Each structure stands twice: as structure tokens, then as C-alpha cells.
Amino acid sequence: MKAAPLLLFLAASSLTADRSECKPAPSCGFPPSLWCRSPEIAAECGVQKQCLELNATRPSEGEPPVEVALYYESLCPGCRSFLVLQLYPTWLMLNDIMTVKLVPYGNAQETSHKEPYTFSCQHGEQECLGNMIETCVLNMIVEAAFPIIYCMESSVDVISAGESCLKLYAPKVTWESIMSCVKGDLGNKLMHKNAQETAALNPPHQYVPWITINGKHTEDLQNKAMSSLFNLVCSLYKGPKPEACTGAFRKLDQSYC
Question: How many CB atoms within 10 Å of residue 12?
Fold first, then answer.
């Protein structure tokens, strides 16, 4: 999954260059994490200049990004902690040198091996529902899928937060369309695919969260990712390190409010 550009300073800035005067920014219908996703969105949100500056600081292409895959369960406390506190913040800061793949399944079991497939989950039916919702989101909403899942997993109630998180990050997609996937053949087949992919892990997964880096899993990589994914991604990227990794300072013509 290709991440949206780093927008931490945009979220903290207004859209006026006059530091002494603060004017409310117009609503553009997109959250800050998507403002630089395309020239059209940047224009609608009035941040073309800031997005051009961000793009100018991006590392040059050539070296492949670090691939981080997370095999997880929607209601697993350890999975939620890693996704919310490590994976998502690292993705925001290092999206130019890393990709993220999410596979919601984990320790679930496929109890019927013919269509329609049935599943049992470690934390009960609600977890199976959460896994299915997030699987359908990943399939139907490519650009905003990770922010939506982060929003759900960081909420007190993962399942009940789904609809409001969808409205926040993908307002043009209806909750009914997601639930149609969840309850229909598409969601069932997508979850079966997650089951097959999880079962094919080598070495076989023994717990969740289960992390692979560039398609590989070792206890050393797992421990380093769980300890500081940010440092691990920076150390593994073979191209020129971005400023976020090196601590280099580059002054941008930022606006203030």
C-alpha cells in the first residue's frame, strides 16, 4: 500500500502566511493526511505551495522502499498497540521509503473450506466482524484505507468507530457499501484469501502481531520492529536517507496562524 505524503506540519499550520492574522481554513472534504495525495486535492484544500515544498524534500527514487507487512487481528491488544503507536506514525513520517501491507486475520481459523467459507476468531464474533470490515476497507478504499483502519484501531470500540472513521477519511464511500462487502460473497472470498496468505507464511506465524520486513520474518526483525520500527526502516533503506532519518534541518517557507 503506497502511503500518502508526510503532512504533520500541514495539520499544525493554517493556510495563511500572515502570522498575526488567523483566518479559518475552508473545508475541503479531505483530512490532512490526504491533502498532498494529488494536485487536485491540494488545489481544493489550498495547499499547493506546501505540497510542492514537501515533494521537494522527498528522497529520489531508485532504491526500492522497505516493505513492512503486518499480520494481525482487529481486537488483539498487542496488534492494536503496534499499529497505533508504531506502524502508523512511522508510515506518516517515512512513507517515501516504505510501504505497508495489512492482513487482518491472525489466529483466526477457517472452519469451512468451501464457499461460503466460515471463520472463528480468537476474540469472538466481534473480532471476525472487525477483521471483515477492515478487509473490505482495504479492498474498496485503497488510498485512505490505512487512515481508516488506524482510526478504528485507536478508538475505544473498534467496530462502532468504523462508520465515523469512514466518513472522516472517505466521505464519498457509503457505510452501506462496506457492509454489503462484509455480508456478501466479496468479503467472504477476501477473508479466505487472507486465510490462505496467513497460512502460507514461512516460517509459520506463532502469534500476532506477526511482522515481515521485505517478505522475511526473523525474531531479530520482529523484536527490532516492535522496539522501534522507525529506526529499523531508516537503517534498512539503501538509498539516501530522508531528513526524518538523519535529523537534518531544512527550512521550509511554512505558514503560521
Answer: 11
